[in-house]
Amino acid sequence: MGNAANYRFTFNLSAALFGPIWLAARGLWAWFWPFLIAEAVMAVQICRGLFGNLGADQLARAERLAAKAEERFQQARAAIEEGSINGEILMNSAQSFQAGALKAEQAAAAAAAEGIGITIVGLVLLVAIKILQGSLANWLLEQRFMQWRADRSIRCGLSAMSASMGALIMALVYPLAAYRFTAAEPPQWLLLFPADRSWHSGLANWVDSLFGWLTLNGEGLFDGIRDAIRILLDATEVVLVDTPWPIVMLVIVVLAWRLAGPGSPCSPSARWPIWPCSASGKKHGNRCPAGHRQLHLCVIRRAVRHLVCQERAGLCHRAADSRLHANHACIRLSDSGYRLLRHR
What we know:
By secondary structure, the protein is mainly α.
């Protein structure tokens, strides 16, 4: 794998079998959670197909409609016996309820028949996830190894503690998720968070009072921050907009001359930002158009970049000159010693 430029297919059977537990043991927690969620979803689908009462809601609806139909039949018989004109209307209503109950029963039977298909789809997708884990495991482990070579503080190898934590998380997530979506009537403690509703209002009132206190007591601080930002923006506007354009361009030309050499102000790239300002100077008075502020900033940014590069180059040249002078001094000292010994 190390000779491959990108991903190369390999298969790790242990990673495919143990899944998130293997990822947790290897410290690959960034990949542990996505695969944990994917496997939990597939486990829920399999449990729904095997143990879930898929037509429970339709069966409950059918029972309610059947009870309503039986009630209307009794009312219709009583009305017919009494000779009331509502007997026929109640009978039609009872027949409508009975037809609805039959349709609900048929829908419940169809939903129950889909359980096998849901189970098969869940198993196929779970196998696909396992294959994906096994095919990515060695590549992820190699990436982890490369990070460890760069930073030896990263934990390496298998960790029994991390594996136990991953197994505990799986043991909590899978059964709870499967029971939540499989049971016909899950318990309320699993559906609702155990929190007192009075906490919500109390916490909201505390937050409102906190912001009210900050508004009253921190008015000076907030005003100071606002004034500082306003002063900075006004100063920037004065420097870049209200200052006469010849002054701004003179500063840019001097900076370019100091940083890049005497030839740079005379180059077309240095004269280019001046031409539009000089052409429109009469039209806008002594102010450079606002559209050319970006040109000035670009030139200043390039000038600063040249300054940094020139300073680094100057340091390198000075270091080289120092080494050259030291070598010359050593040579002169050696020549002087040789002459002295020869003279003696």
